[in-house]
Amino acid sequence: MKDNINRIASEFGLKTSHVVSVVKLLDEGATVPFISRYRKEITGSMDEVAVASVRDRIIQLRDLDKRREAILKSIEKQEKLTPELEAQIEKAETLAELEDIYLPYKPKRKTRASMAREKGLEPLAKLVYEQKIIDLNAEAARFINTEKEVTSIDDALNGARDIIAEWINENQESRKVMRKLFESEASIASKVIKGKEQEGQKFKDYFDWAEPIRKTPSHRLLAMRRGEKEMFLTLDIAPDEDHAISMLERRFVHGVGSAADQVKLAVSDAYKRLLKPSMETEIRLLSKANADEEAIKVFSENLRQLLLTAPLGQKRVLAIDPGFRTGCKVVVLDEQGKLLVNDTIYPNEPQKKVAASAQSIKHLCEAYDVEAIAIGNGTASRETESFVKGIGLSKAVQLLMVNESGASVYSASEVAREEFPDYDVTVRGAVSIGRRLMDPLAELVKIDPKSIGVGQYQHDVDQSSLKKGLDDIVMSCVNSVGVELNTASKELLSYVSGLGPQLAKGIVDYRNENGPFKDRKSITNVARLGEKAFEQAAGFLRIRDAENPLDRSAVHPESYAIVAKMARDLNCSIQDLVRDSSLRSRVNLKEYVSETVGLPTLNDIMKELDKPGRDPRQAFEVFQFQEGVNTMSDLQIGMKLPGLVTNVTNFGAFVDIGVHQDGLVHISHLSDSFVKDPAALVSVQQKVQVTVVEVDINRKRIALSMKSDPFGKQPTRPTRSKKSDNSNQGGDLQEKLQILKGRFNN
Fold first, then answer.
1. Is the bond into 350 cis (omega within 30 degrees of 0)?
2. Which runs of consecutive H residues, i.e. helices, occur in 623-742?
3. Is the model's pLDDT at 530 over the cut of 70?
4. What's the sign of the alpha-carbon dihedral 429, 431, 435, 437?
């Protein structure tokens, strides 16, 4: 344990004492948000990223220790464990190193080498391996044994080479050298499977593709692997074969003569039959893990930005899920998002009941004092928007487009059925659209993040790693914003630090039976919600109408006594301290430092007293698409349009310009200068100005640019070799758009 702590501290540049504290808190059940927010003194104010990194690394190292223990037991059971071997196993720092040590002792199924040993050929193998000048044929003839199916000299030598090949494969140093060679020099080559050229057109960029595996970006590796999985492509990952074999020959062939020639043959066989497949499997797993990590990172950051989208707030909203033939489903929600009424109107083709639809919308707006109208951005959205704009509503009523990705998934989910058992999916979808405008975070937590449309190859990456990464992001966002205890859904509450689905359900059930909570402490009345859960959750819960103003803030109840003392020392109430900045300015924080509370916590308390329960999300801003541009046929080259970023990938950003088809701003068109990381320039839901540079209606592809001169020269970039330049071409042909060719390539 101590070695793991020291190792983590060294790897991350942290103090050992801080790592010890974080690991101890994690082992006690503390969450990442709680540790980073309320235990700054003992962690050195480590943020969520640092705490999560320590958590993930300690899990890795403990898994390594478990494997180490299993290997030691296995070898000991075989009665082959020596003090030297045990020390070697104890010192191994990676799983690969550990498995290399274990390989000669690992129970195997029958191999060519084991069969050769059964035929009594191991002494011959040792003799050949020594590579002395001998009469090889005469020595091999001694091992001919028809009863053991060794009928000739060739049979004997073949068996000896099989044994030598296994020795070479199991040699720790040779595996280490080959592993390093594969990681640094292997190329990934993809070829189309003969006869699949037409069927696999979506992967045509990879029909004859090769590049160094260490330079292959995440999205391209995952695309090639998908092509292989769907049986359109074959993949091979390896360095130059002759070079690899020559490296092994220099290590194992050290003589001349017939015995050395046999070893040379064994080296070639060992590489082709044993080492290459083994190393290729390893590099496939390693490169896939790296690609997954990058894809999950991109997805997670996009999800964070989407979840933290500015909320409209508590207003009465009329939400419309637009459509043509089946009409537009309309709902009205109160300030808390409660469904008040629903209706269906038919303002679009083919019914075109404009007058009746207009009357219905006007009536609902007046009858329920509607303050904003939310229109989903799917089918018929722009047509419906034009209709609503033309019916003469008060200018005080805001008209807003809402990204409805995932609304249909929610509407058919168990969560939606439980919430609205008496309504069909169309009503539920419209409710989701309206609530998403009011509070995106509270509504989006009800939807599987993979259905929200901000991921990249989310179905190709390791699903457990993806879930863990996305759960981390959702929990981080929920706890950074805070949750209103008396109105939050059980789905939202389940992401609060220390709660989870069961306690969240218990809170909602208790609230329904007993009315709203009056203060934070009263949640301990909920069944099975003990002091530990309360400690973890309390600081992230808010009670808007609480008598104690601290219950409305992010000040943790464990610090209430400190604030009360500050108020007493100033001869005022806590309410006065919250309301009057001049009183707060008189507080000398150093007077309140103790063994358990330091300046980091005290500074956080003062920030909360300044703006209790402040929402970290940006203020809401109205966005409108360009009027008159509703479909792809309305687009013209050179047209400048407002847009909303819907997805950021390694190769560019997708932007909604209001024509029911996102356009791609390729990485080379994000800026006038060279861009390496699109996420450094744009984020999901960011409002941008773009220029249309190419439209392909047949293939539903739109190329956009954010450059000041989209049709001028390409961004300047560091000089690279021609092969390296290829690393920014290609892309995901199955998802939305392929990377643009010609003048849009790097």
1. yes
2. 722-725
3. yes
4. positive
**Tally of helices (H runs) and strands (E runs) in the chain:** 31, 15
Nearest partner of 705 among 719, 716, 715, 717, judged by Cα: 715
Confidence tier at 2 by pLDDT (50, 70, 90)? low
Dihedral sign from CA coordinates of 442, 444, 445, 446: positive
Interval 641-667 mean pLDDT: 92
Q: How far apart are CA 657 and CA 689, in angstroms?
A: 9
The per-residue pLDDT for range 188-239, each reduced to its tens digit, is 999 999 999 999 998 999 999 999 999 999 989 999 999 999 999 999 999 9
Q: Is the separation of the CB atoms in 452 and 303 below 8 Å?
A: yes
CATH 1.10.10.650 boundaries in the chain: 2-105
Give the chain's length.
746
Dihedrals phi, psi of 739, to nearest 5 degrees: -65, 135
705 sits in which H/E element? strand 701-705
Q: What is the DSSP letter of 269?
A: H
Tokens of 235: 């993949």
The answer to whether 410 and 446 have CB atoms below 8 angstroms apart is yes
What is the SS3 string spanning 172-231? Answer: HHHHHHHHHHHHHHCEEEEEECCCCCCCCHHHHHHCEEEEEHHHCCHHHHHHHHHHHHCC
d(CA 4, CA 65): 10
What is the model's pLDDT at position 64? 95
Q: Where in the chain is the domain with CATH 2.40.50.140?
A: 632-744
Domain 112-299 CATH superfamily = Tex N-terminal region-like (1.10.3500.10)
Residues with Cβ within 8 Å of residue 49, at least 6 apart in sequence: none
Q: Assign a CATH topology to domain 632-744.
A: OB fold (Dihydrolipoamide Acetyltransferase, E2P) (2.40.50)
List where CATH 3.30.420.140 sits in the chain. Answer: 317-438
Question: 321-342 pLDDT, tens per residue?
Answer: 999 999 999 999 999 899 999 9
pLDDT band with cut points at 50, 70 and 90 for residue 1: low
* C-alpha of 390 from chain center: 43
**Helix ranges (DSSP H) in 372-424:** 381-389, 407-411, 414-419
Eight-state DSSP code of residue 145: B
SS (H, E, C) 475-499: HHHHHHHCEECCCCCHHHHCCCCCC
- State yes or no: pLDDT of 457 exceeds 90: no
Average pLDDT over residues 509-536: 95
Mean pLDDT taken over the chain: 91
CA torsion angle 158 160 164 165 (round to 10): 20
Q: What is the mean pLDDT of residues 363-368?
A: 96
553-572, pLDDT tens digit by residue? 999 999 999 999 999 999 99
Q: Which CATH number is 2-105 given? A: 1.10.10.650
Check residue 740 and give its pLDDT. 36
Of the candidates 498, 520, 723, the residue with the CA atom closest to the CA atom of residue 613: 520
Q: Which of 72, 30, 17, 193 is nearest to 534 (CA)?
A: 30
Q: At what angle do helices 381-389 and 354-367 cross, to 10 degrees?
A: 70
Question: Does residue 710 sit in helix, strand or coil?
Answer: coil
CATH code of the domain occupying 317-438: 3.30.420.140
* Under 8 Å between Cβ of 34 and 498: yes
Task: For residue 473, give the nearest of 639, 298, 665, 221 by alpha carbon.
Answer: 298
Question: Do 659 and 692 meet the contact criterion of CB atoms below 8 Å apart?
Answer: no
Beta carbons of 728 and 680 less than 8 angstroms apart: no
Question: Residues spanned by CATH 1.10.3500.10 within the chain?
Answer: 112-299
